[in-house]
Amino acid sequence: MPDRGGGTGPSGPRTRVGRPSRRARTLLMTLGVLAVLGMAFVMFAGFWTDWLWFRSVHYSSVFTTTLWTKIGLFLVFGLLMALAVGLNIWLAHRLRPPLSAMSMEQQSLDRYRMGIAPFKKWLLLGITVLVGLISGASASGQWRTWLMWVNGVSFGEKDPQFHLDVSFYAFDLPWYRFLLAFGFAATILSLIAAVLTHYLYGGLRITSPGARATAAATGHLSVLLGVFVSLKAVAYWLDRYGLAVKSSDFKATGNWTGLRYVDANAFLPAKTILFCIAVICALLFFATLWRRTWQLPVIGFGLMVLSAILIGGLYPAIVQKFQVQPNEQAKEAPYIQKNIDATRKAYAIDSTRPEEYSGKSTVKDKSRLRADADTAAAYRLIDPNIVSPTFQQLEQKRKYYQFPLTLDVDRYQGKDTVIGLRELNIKGIPKRNWINDHFTYTHGYGAILAAGTQTDANGSPVFTEAGLPTTGQLPPYEQRIYYGEKTDQYSIVGGPQKELDYEENGEKTTSYQGTSGVSLSSAFNRAAYAVAFSEPQILYSGAIGDGSRILYNRTPKERVEAVAPWLTIDGDAYPAVVDGRIQWIVDAYTTTNGYPYASRTTLGETTADALTVGNQQRAVVAQQNQVNYIRNSVKATVDAYDGTVNLYQWDTKDPVLKTWMKAFPGTVKERSEIKPDLLAHLRYPQDMFKVQRELLTRYHVTDPAQFYSGSDAWQVPDDPTNKDGNAVPPYYLSMKMPGDPAERFSLTTTFTPNGRPNLGGFMAIDADATSKEYGRIRLLRVGEDVPGPEQVQNKLNGLPEVATFVRDMKGADSDIEYGNLLTVPLDGGFLYVEPVYAQGRNAHYPLLKKVAASYVDADQPKGDTTKDVTVFKDTLAEALNAVFGVEGTTPPPVTPPGTTTPPTPTTADAALKQAIADAQKAYDDGQEALKKGDWDAYGKSQAALQQALQRAADEGAKLKSPSPAPSTAPSTAPSAPPSAAPSAKPSAPSGSPSPSPGG
């Protein structure tokens, strides 16, 4: 007989045919264990790196609180769902009939019963585990709802219908609704599982003779149906309160939240009646345990369905048709008033009342108007939305630096200033490789500042802090920028590999001295990051050693959103130099959509304007897109060097913030900890302002009848300088509102009546955090005859001199860009000022070339051409002079007898200074070209140098007089390379460019 499976042969023992050897089995088992361990480590790596990051930013409590909350919800609700479904399957199996009926149906089912008999326990376990995992995962996503319910604090305000505290709707009702939804899901799944089990084991029959259901199956399913109907009764009861936060479309006002007449007088009583019917119906189902018949429960259920149709649907429709519509305005007036009051309070606009502003000038003296125009505002000629290419061209210095597309406006030394950070541009690195991308080029360098109201003779910004490293008006500060809006890749710093600091007369290197980031000294951490970032070189690279730290999550909004995932983040993080460090300032909001009667708004749409479209870096980071309550409750800072995140409590009365501070104790610092130097740079946030202005287009009206008619509704106008039809952005501007004694740093916007282009309203808010009236909204309701921004822009475009200018620029292959159209109330009328930029073919950046101005006055007789004049001039002073028809501004000061009149700057003096500055720049450009060996650029710079020197000589000749020559005029042209940067940091003279390190 042949040996079929084993035994011995001439060469010794033989293995069974087809069975792997012990060595092969051991190898396969080892590989399998390694594969499982590898998969487990991949899953663990993400968790571990998250924990390391939160620990590195000192917000580990946020990570642990969130994690344990999610785990707790997952286990509790996953276990509850598994028990509910598993228990009902087990009970249905236990209540099966001992003998199945003799029928074709049951004989067919016998095959399935026999097939699953050996695997019943495993099948039960698999089903319960599956539904438990799905349910637990869904419940863990409700961690915010749970924490708000557990930690909720009182608002101290009650809704006008049920007289419950607002916290019930904001914190409690969402959790109750989740529990109700979970109960429905558990009941329905249990019911489906029980029905299938009863059918499989003969408790339910379709074609078999005799009763369709056994008594045991009838009782079991009746209880489940009774639970379902009981939950429906609870739903009807909660729906009563849900009416206070229900959104609906009210044709008279559009989006509506809260009860209307039909809700209070039809839906509310209907929900109460349906609740009672559902309770009775549920009791009938439970009674089936004794009656063993479904006759009464089915009748009760049918009655409940019919009642839901008639009472819950038909009756409200009849009330709406025959009671409300014939006299809708009077019927809805009390509810409109409740909606107005709640909405204004929820969006913090309840103290805002429109002030009548006729638009008619109260001053007839043109010279007085001209003088008042000088003090009405600090007209920002440098538009931060346009001049980024100018910053890029003049201050980029190296291709691996960049500026944001939209710069920011702040205040330095009491003046409006445009600021941008010279951040790292990873795409501009000369030679791209892993070492250069992540070890050598790690940070940007320096904050660049420009006066917001000045330009030089060529139309370029007047930089008050510039150069590399920067010098100017700022005291010494840490200029390295490791965290910024453009810094979205990871860097590994602090190890054996040196970083490029900056280039000046050769490369300067540095090594990171900060404490941020996660240490890579541990091989385990390196392995975890190699897996998490899919970058195996992190594990074995020799560029990583003792002291190496990995920096990631480096954008300011990303860091704040990570450490405070319960906050909504403003779209515009802006930098400020504070106490010798660059700090990113991030405004953050607490929101809810559960404020009763307050109308909802969509944050993504409300905060969109001409600047945010297509620019995701300026988009709001919203936890809830639909909200009906918002507060700027937190001011956050992110250190640009070490990434430190600080959260400061700004709104000390906000109950939503207090709730989150209870949930995450120690994460938010007290408002009193904000240092004065930081406070000076805090400002009113743009996204909050945009939400408020959108609501004020309708809710500036507080009379229900007028609100219903919509006769005084406004709209936010489209940006007249933007062809895409997007809303005009708000502008930061230091200006005086009517009645104010001095300028205030403000955030401003305009309104137009619905469907009309004329000016309907003007809104300004005190945006200076140091002001006692910070956050005060001033709203002017304007007379009907005042031209709006679009009309002013159209009139400007129609001027012959504008057409000539545009034609000449186009002929010179130049593009025209219109800057921000600033609107300023002035002596009863409105002054519009708009800078106009041109960008030539050979210039890669826009320069201010013209200034348009228009003073609109509603008190203008027909045919009077001396008012409502729109002009287009070379400078702001010329434009204001032309608008008001005066030759100059204020008369020269009177000098007392016997005193010496100090020399005053003249046009020639300014031109001389500019010529000297241009000569210095041309010389610097030539030296830079020599370093690169770019002889073409060197030749152009030498030609520019000769032209600048000739201009300086010509202007110097004009200044020859007995009085001393200006101290800034050099006696000779620069003939030697600039000396090394001075050890003491000079301050830039007012109104002139900051000296460069080599100047």
Fold and architecture overview:
By secondary structure, the protein is of the alpha+beta class. It is 42% helix and 17% strand. Strands 5, 27, 28, 29, 30 and 31 form a 6-stranded mixed β-sheet that branches. Strands 7-8-11-12-13 form a 5-stranded antiparallel β-sheet. Helix 8 (261-291) packs antiparallel against helix 9. Residues 1-17, 889-907 and 960-999 have low confidence and may be disordered.
Mean pLDDT: 85
List low-pLDDT spans: 1-17, 889-907, 960-999
Strand content: 15-25%
Gyration radius from CA atoms, angstroms: 37 Å
Structural class: alpha+beta
Broad shape: flat
**Termini Cα gap:** 105 Å
Q: Give a short account of the largest sheet.
A: 6 strands, mixed
Give the % helix.
Answer: 40-55%
Number of strands: 36
Secondary structure: elements and pairs:
Layout: E1 8-9, E2 12-13, H1 22-56, H2 60-94, H3 104-116, H4 120-140, H5 143-151, H6 166-200, H7 215-242, E3 247-250, E4 254-257, H8 261-291, H9 295-324, H10 328-346, E5 355-357, H11 366-376, H12 388-395, E6 401-402, E7 408-412, E8 415-421, E9 423-424, H13 434-440, E10 444-445, E11 447-455, E12 461-466, E13 471-472, E14 480-481, E15 491-493, E16 499-503, E17 507-510, E18 518-519, H14 523-532, H15 537-540, E19 549-551, H16 556-563, E20 568-569, E21 574-578, E22 581-592, E23 601-602, H17 603-606, E24 626-627, E25 629-639, E26 645-649, H18 655-663, H19 676-679, H20 686-699, H21 704-709, E27 714-715, E28 731-735, E29 744-753, E30 761-766, E31 777-782, H22 789-797, H23 800-811, E32 815-818, E33 822-826, E34 829-839, E35 847-856, E36 869-873, H24 876-884, H25 907-932, H26 935-958
Parallel strand pairs: 5-31
Antiparallel strand pairs: 1-2, 3-4, 6-9, 7-8, 8-11, 10-14, 11-12, 12-13, 15-19, 16-17, 18-19, 20-22, 21-22, 22-25, 23-24, 25-26, 27-29, 28-29, 29-30, 30-31, 32-34, 33-34, 34-35, 35-36
Helix pairs in contact: 1-2, 1-14, 2-4, 2-6, 5-6, 5-18, 6-7, 7-8, 8-9, 11-24, 25-26
